[in-house]
Amino acid sequence: MIRSLLLALCALIPSASAQEGPEPLPLSELPIAAERLLAVAPFTLQEARPYSWMRNHAPIREGLLLALEVDPVLARPRQTAEPVLYVGGVAAERLNAGYPSGHLLALVPGKPDLTVEPIFFGQPDLPERLDADDGQRALAEARASGIVAFSAAQVRSAQAAGGAALGLRDSRALDFAVAAWIEAWAPEEAERAAGLRAPGM
Amino acid sequence: MRATHLSTLLPLLLLPACDGCHSTGVVPDDTGEPPAPDACDDAAGQVLCLDGQAVTCDEAGDIAATEECTAGVCEEGVGCVACAVDLADVFVPEADEESTGLVLVVDPVPPDTQFSVRRLTSRAIELSAAAGGVSLSLVGDGVTLYDGGGAELGTAVTFTPAELPTAVFLAGTAAGREATLTATHTLAGCEAVTDTLRLRTVAAPDLAGEPLDRFPDFSFVNAFNEGEPVSVAVDPGLLPDRAGATADAYVVQHRHLGTWASTQDLVDVTGGAETLTVGTTSLADSQVEVGTLDGGDLFGDYDVVLDFDQDGALGPGDLIDHLSEGSAGLYAFIDLSQAGSHAVEQAQYSGGSWLGQRTYWPQDIASLGSLPLVVVSHGNGHDYTWYDWLGEHLASHGYVVMSHQNNTGPGIETASTTTLTNTDYLLGNLGSIGGGALAGHVDGQRIIWIGHSRGGEGVVRAYDRLRDGQYTPTNFGADDIRLISSIAPTVFNNVSDSDPHGVAYHLLAGAADGDVTGQPDCTQCQFFRIAGAAQGDLMVTYVQGAGHNDFNCCGFDDATGPDQIGRTEAQVVGKSTYLALLTWRFGELEAAGEYLQRMYDDLHGAGIAADTVVANLYRPASGGGIFVLDDLQSESDLSVSSSGGAVAYDVTSPAEALSQDADDRFNWSERDPLNGMTWVDGWGDSSRALSFEWAAGEELSIEWEVPAGEGDWSGFSVLSFAAAQVTRHPNTTSLDGPLDFTVTLVDGAGGESDVSFGAWGGLTTPYKRTGNGGGQGWADELNTVRIPLGAFTASGTALDLSDLVAVRFHVGGVWGSATGRVVVDDLEVLP
Predict the structure, then answer these.
(1) Which residue is closest to B384 within chain A, CA to CA?
(2) Domain parsing of chain B, residue ranges
(3) Which of A128, B132, B402, B476 could form a disulfide with B480 if both were Cys (CB 3.0 to 4.6 A apart)?
(4) For residue range B464-475, what is the model confidence (pLDDT) as tens digits?
């Protein structure tokens, strides 16, 4: 029994082997849904802002700020194979690292109905290469795998947590709003928030 | 006639009786009849010449003495004078004058250099005569004769008795030439008497370097680490006239040409001159350690002087490394990972969305003129505030560094845009940043882009967009980007879109990278692909045990593999590498480039830990006087090189193919002869290389014919090729250590010279990381092997560099490592 206990403990303790690297991406399990919707707040912009997270996307004047709880392994920033975060069929703009906290902030254009549009990680790709058709295919794959949108109650709760709608002048103002959200939901990334708030010239 | 105390004087003596003098053809005028008794009646106190006899008259007008001038001629008023001419040199024995002769060094000074400088490394001849004059004849080229006032004397000059004694100087003005200097006695009747001295010119050799544990026994270099021993040597094979000679070896603070012209005294900086005795034949016994040197704020510059006349001053007959308009003889560098002498200021600000910047500059920038600009573009999920380690370091050494918000999330195109816009923004707002401190002090024509990860590909893409005309900045242009460095870049694009074109390109990557891993089953991870597309100067620094985020302050620990060196050490390597690279390319200090050109074992930053393993690759841009013997690229037939010569071999399992791990696994397979090579994996990748092996007990070779008409390598200085051990091959696993073999040059007369490059270091053992197949060993690590051509002729080795017919690699236990499988590429000779 003692031996079994020890073996079980060894399974829990990360190996001390220096060969091991970061946790591998569970590629075969994608798409994977975001676990929780922590907060959501709509915003508007007086000056349109480019949206480069989908190919040929028009500049945006409105959108949603989202705070999500996700598997940190999925959130961990990667240079090569990074799963694309979708809200429905639109690739969302990631705003922070979300690792190791698992609190990932994102921005999505427009006013998607979060009780209809699921939020999930799709296959790895460079978002700038994805067009609307690619987004729809990712959404179809997600739905086929059983991923569903958050419930109305979950969305309401997140809206309450997200506070009032943000009426912003421009991208720079949005940066400041994002900085505040980083400090609120991913305080370990405070330096990133400070970088967004760097003073103007 | 050989003096034991060396002097620069070459006395030309005409002696009544001259032991050892060179006499040819004495023509006495002798009738044998005694002079008439009244011969002196009208010549009291004079010396007369009568019938070949010298008649000395006393004051009374009587004959005091007579002498038959059998050994010469009779000179009125003087008496018997020998017909004898001697060009005696303190370095060259009489018997060797026409064979060994005199070797004149040619310093790298401009053609119009004044004599006041040239004389310092010339050879002085003092001319005198007891009677008669002397004519000098200079036949050949590469040598100029000057009088003591610095006027050129041409190729034929006669000195009358009234002009003697005088001093003339021989100076080498072009290397690799031959001439003869002939002295003729112009005294009537002695015109057939001559003496001839052979003259040869060589480029003034380096004198400083390091001992080697095998032939060629010494390596002449220009860069040293502060505090490491410096040695000095003279190759008696190159300067045979110095064989056996003794000199005081001084290391002095560097002086420019003009300063040497006015001040020749020698003040040693190592605590006192050492004595160097030049051996008779070998470099092995022609060297002395002279001490260690101080690196100052970044480097100390020094000259070496061998004072052969031991008079404590640089003068004719001495040797100096170097007398030149620009560079010093040698440089000692500080620990390049240490901060420089400038206190650093920084400012963090934003010009709007995606224009957040943190900029670092020397606090005393107002007194520093216009400084190069380094732009740092971070990777995905990274932050622009994560590069203090690099920004502060380079700013402390006199650079302006700006790290910016980089839009990497969407991809490479957006990342490249933010590199472009942020560079433009900084250059357009110098009057505002840091309160205007940067205004007038940023050189917008000397820009360096450093990108990490997706940013590493982004900076290359940005440059490609500039070159292809797809983006036009406001405040700079493509030509202003002088160097691009990618740290572990992704390769999402085809290399035709992430194309460095002809800009100088540097790659820094870690073999323990757990993100952009470099493994063959991930096309985007194979960062060497971008290096393979580079058409300009290429430098690669591949660091075993370094992870992806070791090159920023704060990314998660991704390092994968054994013997991880950690962030601190990786940044020591990074700081050392970047400071050497920038000092070379922007400080215009060639010696600093040695940190990226020489084998890592031979020279690396002093602050780097002894057990950190790095593979250095350096491939200069094609052209520029380089002769490529075989690029292993454009000719796929194994039996023919790209230069058209035949290739003959008995090495085992040779293959010339794309530099690609064909089965996407690091484990060895005979179907994958270039296993472990990760330079090709996508559309547009085209790098090719050669691979072959040998087993324990085998002595094998591969030989490249030097095509007819291409065999004169006397104008080149270095033989270079890239090579790597093939990962996870049984021979590599069996060897389990650095690998070397021998390079042989063959000349047209059958002369051969062998040099084992292991004298400088071996090909690194592939990093013992597991994964991506069975066994251990990560990607193949190309190292540049550079062998000075002078090594092949060291110590008088008989090899004619002007008539080479073959280059041969000898492998096997007699020649180097007992077993191995290697990849070889880019076999070439450089000026």
Answers:
(1) A195
(2) 6-82, 94-203, 208-333, 344-619, 627-830
(3) B476
(4) 999 999 999 999
